[in-house]
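Box 3.1 A note on notation
Throughout this textbook, protein chains are presented in two layers. The first layer is the amino acid sequence; the second is a token string describing backbone geometry. Keep the layers aligned when reading.
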Amino acid sequence: MSNYIEFFSELNSSDTIDKINNLFEKYDIERRDRRLYPDIEFNITVAEIDDLKRKGIITEENYFSLDINRNNDLTTLEKLLYSIIWKQRDLKKERHIISGIYGINTDRKVFNQFGKYLNNRDEPMIDQHVIRSFILYKTKEIIKDIKEKHFDLYSDQYIQWLNDNDFFRNNKTLIDELMFCLGKKIK
């Protein structure tokens, strides 16, 4: 992105949703596809996870129980979603999301931070694209291959940057979307 200095200058001075929305248009940043990524409007609480543990659905180590596939008391929706996770070979990733809900850090930063977000909307969503955008802002470099070291170096700085700006702090989901979409574009 050749105009990144101008973009981030405008972003940092934005104090309305309209100004953020204008950045998407002005810099030709494609918005998130709401059919693939609709806003998540529910939260998952620690109490809800504790209840799943009491029912034997989640283990003390924050994994799905190995017996879950024999549990006929699950709703059809629960069975369907578990089947998708199983088919995608994503079993064991739930530990990172569940640990995030508890506020416990793990080595899978994206899933872990997503769990924090699901429990607490004061937490931002952070993934490789968001980090790529933030690195561009901080260093003026585009890094296409984001690694764990980048999350380690920049995640806390990103959260601090959001929280230091009242407008950003109160509109984290919108700022996360802008940074996500920009990160995809510059990759």
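The chain has two domains: 4-38+121-186, 46-119. The CA atoms of residues 100 and 112 lie 5 Å apart.
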